[in-house]
Specification:
This protein has 389 residues and is α+β, with helices and mostly antiparallel strands. Helices cover 35% and strands 26% of the residues. The chain has a domain at 5-72 and 100-171 and 271-345: FAD/NAD(P)-binding domain (3-Layer(bba) Sandwich). The protein has helices spanning 13-24, 49-57, 61-66, 105-118, 162-168, 238-244, 250-257, 298-315, 318-347, 353-368, 370-375, 378-381; strands at residues 5-9, 28-33, 44-47, 70-71, 74-79, 85-90, 101-104, 122-125, 131-133, 139-141, 147-149, 152-155, 174-186, 194-200, 203-210, 215-223, 235-236, 262-269, 277-278, 281-283. The strands form 4 sheets. It has an 8-stranded mixed beta sheet with strand order 6-5-14-15-16-13-18-17. α1 (13-24) packs parallel to α4 (105-118), α2 (49-57) packs across α8 (298-315) and α8 (298-315) packs antiparallel against α9 (318-347).
Amino acid sequence: MPVSNAIVIGGGIGGLATAASLSQRGMAVTLLEQAASIGEVGAGLQISPNGMAVLRAMGLDTKLAAKGAVRAQAVVLRDYRAGKQVARLDLMRGQADYPYMFVHRADLIDLLLGAAKRNNVSIELGIPAGYAIPGKLPQVRLKDESLWRAELIVDASGIHSKTRAWLNSANAPRFSGQVAWRAVVPNRFDHPNEAHVTMGPGRHLVSYPLRGGTLVNLVAVEERTTWAPEGWSIADDPAYLRKAFFGFGGRAAEMIAAVETCTLWGLHLHPVARIWQQNGVALVGDAAHPTLPFLAQGANMALEDAWTLADCVLNQPMDAALQRYQDIRKPRARRVIKAAQGNAARYHLQHGIKRFAAHTGLRIASKLAPGAMIGAFDWLYHHDVTDKK
């Protein structure tokens, strides 16, 4: 018997995409969000072709472009001292159907929220964080002990999901030994429509344009032994960012000097949840599989989850649908997370033979086999969860 109603916990990208995807399939959906409003959190996002496939299937791809999303032309790896190019991955090669886009998080949230509203999702704000309890008729227990019930409950509340802990028992996160500063600066640097990864010993800077090229998004990652809290909106003094990245030259140095406000984010390692679903309850996005930002796949994985879950629930009985969802998504999430963790080490090589050999190899491959370099990511970017073939 088809599911007729659902509750989604969390008004971020995963929650809104799930609510919109379920409601587009005819389900009555209520979304619970603890904040007083749904709005901007964070700054820039990279939506790769696998994520764009979902947005196109939802009818949102052209609307995203209209909001000033920037089509990415390449990922360029640069050396930190003067910004000299090490390698270039051409993102225009073989990506005609689903482009790679740089998007302001607030703009994507706004699009997904609009899609949810157009499909009559009931959005309840200021609802204190709760957790889902599986059962014949699953329920959400809120902080005040009140209960909400629905045939399907989806927890998309992120890394601190109480439902994840209820299903799997709590897993203490482990500090990765890395922190990330986030900032947005005006694009006074003629930054091209490319993602630049400026690599230095024990640290790297990612930069790319937003909103029609008027802004530049910065993510600066440093290895350190000192623990930092896990969160997106912890304010920090830009002086600490500049001190950590002293010695960076070229455009990178100019952009770091322009930072007026920034946040600091401690990067922690979380295991992929062992159990994603049980008796009418499911996890999506970071609630199921938190990932480090070194492959820019957090938002894309949440979009893939949302579409796959809705598709499974539409076409199969509940228990089989949720098991199918977990079986499809769990191996994919594991592979993406493993690849993301590997990137940090490659970006942070110390001076010496290993760094010299690695950068020399990248330069040669970029010139002699550019197709092979981007082709190594076909498993990631060409994965289309909306394809029925």
